[in-house]
User: What shape does this take?
Amino acid sequence: MERRILEFAGVLRNNGIRVSTAETLEGLQAAGLLGLTDRGGFKNALRATMVKRTADIESFNRLFDVYFSGLGNLIKELGGPASGGQMTDAEFQEFLDQLAELMQDMDPEMSELARALVMQDAGALEQIMREMMESGSVPAVDSPTQMPGAIRAMMERLGAAGLAEEMDRLRDAAREAGADDDAVARLEEYLEQRMRDLADMLKGAVKIENDQREKPEERKQERDKLLDKSFYYLSPSEIRRMREAVSALARKLKNMMSVRRKRMKRGRLDVKGTLRSSMEFGGVPFRVRYENKRKERPQVIILCDISDSVRNVSRFMLQFVHSLQDLYSRVRSYVFVADIAEVTRLFKDNDIQTGITEAINGNVVNVYAHSDFGRAFRDFHRDHLEAVDSRTTVIILGDARNNYNAPNDWVLRDIQQRAKQVIWLNPENRSTWGFGDSEMSKYAPHCDMVEECRNLRQLYAVVDQIILS
Amino acid sequence: MSSDTAYASAEDVKRLLADQKYICDTNIATVVYLATMLGKPLLVEGPAGVGKTELAKVIASSLDTRLIRMQCYEGLDEAKALYEWEYAKQLLYTQILKDKISEVTAGTKSLAEAVDRLTEQDDVFFSKRFVLPRPLLQAIQSERRVVLLIDEIDKADAEFEAFLLEILSDFQVTIPELGTIEAVNIPIVVLTSNNAREMSDALKRRCLHLYIDFPNIELEHEIVRLKVPEAEEKLTKEVVELVHSIRALDLKKQPSISETLDWARALCVMNVDNLDEDLVKDTLATICKYEGDLRKAEKELAQHLQKKKASVAGESGAAKPAAGDDKDLLH
Assistant: This one.
């Protein structure tokens, strides 16, 4: 059993669940404590020790079922009397008993496999197949057409040729023992059925093995691809999977802020407080008091371009915005195309998807207008500038494609003067900045940081840089 | 690990917790059993109000041991969680023992010599006597095996989490002046988290993980029956069913188990035996705490009542009016 748990840990790892060695050992320990008789308990024990993320519980359940009972269930499913259930259970049992007697007298003895197969010994069968699977001799099957070949190969390895011979011998033995033609015919049919069952079992085994094996590779590749995938071309399912990555990002941002907050918490010497507490120690200023600086709540203002050219990007960006809003109380987000509007409340009142849909569906600002950064900035300056103060980090997300309107980059200069820092994230390739109607070269001088941000990997890098700065 | 503060088996956990009026499923019982046997901290996650904190409390009372609770919040630091030097006491002692100190330093010729003499004695002032143990230190110093509840760990800063690691993996505390203090008894540690933020992997690795979700209808029914025995069977059933259908709605905050209990209690206090009374609508505030949620819940209630009426009408129309008769007999 130990080996199976260790192997199962490997299967979990392959499927993207992090399981440390220590956790595996705990799993072993826990399984030892509970014993293996109670399947539910065993499963719970492994889950509690090896799976620590709520999001992983589902995959764990799936893998557990495939790994620990897939084969067993398969074998049991295929058991039972042959020939469409003409025999009752009692008759079948008697039939099996007779077969057992027959086999006992046979010389030379039948192989373990043949015996297990004929007697429908599920435990022994599972054992044999497991050994085969663990020895790593299950061929990989990429397409259904490879299946028959794979099964043939496995049959051979199990010694199927010898098996058929053994079946013949069994039939002869039955005839010698004086069974009538009818009984022999029934036996023959049964044996053939069992051979077919064996093929099915092998097929199932190959499938199970491939289920455990194929997916992780695929998924890892997908993840890597997702990381490098341009925000411009995201399918709905990719957006879904990206959400987790985004919340991880937001967490990073938050950690950075909390470290800074801790450093900044202690303020000036609090003379009054120190004197007061010195009374306790006979006038000796034993405990020095400091003024507590007002807790520095990270304040972020995000301006999101949601015009058609960056629709997909803004969808993702708003997701990012939203994750931030969940973590802080002071995040204000704005969307703009030509008009600008605050959408902070939308995310407070709704869940993420509704919030995003509401924000970009055109109810808040006209999304069919031509992008006009200059106008949006000017309006922001007029209506919302008081939101920016010396503690605010302003993050602007947009491609800076201004349709040859007035860029109004003086607004950005004003914002930079008021704000702690201004960060511009541009989803376009850096080499295209400043060409055509891109005003990036005008805006960039007024930003503390300008980054290309075309995919998740770059976004990670940007956040890392923000942490370092 | 003393034998008097341990469970015999997972079933034993279930039984003992049930004695404390805490109904749990086999999953919870198994994991609790494992946590106590392996001496591992237990990280409990799940939505608010499913009884995470309660679990720690009933573990303590079912094992008849003390519960040491530490509520986490932003800015919680070592001094409040682990230990603090009792400066005032130290100072007081130095004042009182002034004479003794001059005795010690008597006969010294230079200041350096006096300081040397004093240095020999400074262990006196940095000894266990002057340490004020906070919850964490209390828990590992306790003579009996206690239950240590670290509540809402997600509210604490990430640094505090890192600092917990030493305690949770080795059950020891390092005080620079004193050295390392090891646990007399390994406490049963329960950490709860509402998932305001994801815990670090390092912390998770050291814990067993338990996810408590809202219970299924049967389990919740049982819980309400146990905790609000004064409510009638039929009302209980209806309340639980309705709460479950409300939970399925898209709400800002889903009603928790404790709120189900509150609601059932409120209905009892108001002598309501049936959800179709007008009063019921006014009591919905016990399970829904947002205006928008409340409106959605009211709609759900109306729908529920309509469905019920329809099914009752169907029953009494088609077959014997048994349901109606029963009601009359009961009241």
Remarks:
- Chain B has a mean pLDDT of 83.
- Chain B touches chain A through 34 residues (CB under 8 Å).
